[in-house]
UniProtKB/TrEMBL annotation, chain A:
Lineage: Eukaryota, Metazoa, Chordata, Craniata, Vertebrata
Protein name: Centromere protein S
Organism: Pterocles burchelli
GO annotation, cellular component aspect: FANCM-MHF complex
Gene3D superfamilies linked to this entry: Histone, subunit A (1.10.20.10)
Family from the record: Belongs to the TAF9 family. CENP-S/MHF1 subfamily.
Amino acid sequence: MEAAEGEEGLLLTQRLRAAVHYMACGLCQEVAEDKGMEFSKQAMAPIAEITFRQCKNFAKDLEMFTRHAKQSTITTEDVKLLARRSSSYITQKSDEITSSDHIHRGKK
Amino acid sequence: RPLSKERRSGQKQVHSHENWSLSPEEFEIWDRLYRIKESDGVKEPVLPQSHFETLENLEDISEHEEEATHKLSLSEWSIWQNRPFPTFMVDHSDRCYNFISVMEMIELLRNEQGDCSYELEIQPHLRIEDVHVQRNKSHLSVANSA
C-alpha cells in the first residue's frame, strides 16, 4: 500500500510515523512517571510502530463497518464496534461525547 | 491404528443425530479418548483472560484454581514470532503481518545501546504542527533535538 503511493506517499507515511512516535513517547513518559519507572528508546519505538500499524487496522475496519451499514461517513457507532470484544469504556466515552455534542448518525 | 478407526466411526454417526449435544456413543468416545482426567497428569488448558491495566475492568475475573490449569501463553515463544509461521487453509492476515513486522523490529532493536535507529530514521520527518506539544517540552529527547 505504501509502495503504491510512490515517493511522496512514503514521505507522508514517514511524517505520520514521526508524529505518532513523538506522541507515543509522550504518553510513555506519562506512564513512566506514574509508575516510577523508565522506558528505553528501544522499548518506545516498537510501541510507536504498533500504534501506527494499529491505526491502519482501525481505518480498514471502520471503513468496512461503515460500508456494512450502507453509510459513507464513519460515526461513533462504527468506533464502538472496534471495541466490541472488550469492556464498554469506549461506549461510555462515546455516549458522553454524543450527549455533549449531539452527534447523530444520519437516518437510514 | 484402532484409535483413528474409532474416531472415524464416531464421525460417521454425526449425521444420525441432530442434537447439539453428544450422543451416548460420542460421549463414550470423548470420555475415553479426549477428556482430561486427573489421572492423566496434565493440567487443563485455559486461555488467559483479557485485562486492561489502564481501565476499569468490567468483565468479571473468574477465579479458577491456577494450580490445576495450564494457562496457554502467547508470549513464551516470542523469539519464533519474527517470521510467518506455515499456514494450512487460512492465510496470514494483515494484522498478523503487522505483528510479525513489529516482532522483527524488536529483534533488530534488541541489541542496540543508546541512540535508537528507528528514532534517528524518522525524526527528520517530524513536523511540529502535526503533534500536540506537551506542557513539559524537556521530557522528550525528540523534542530537545528537534
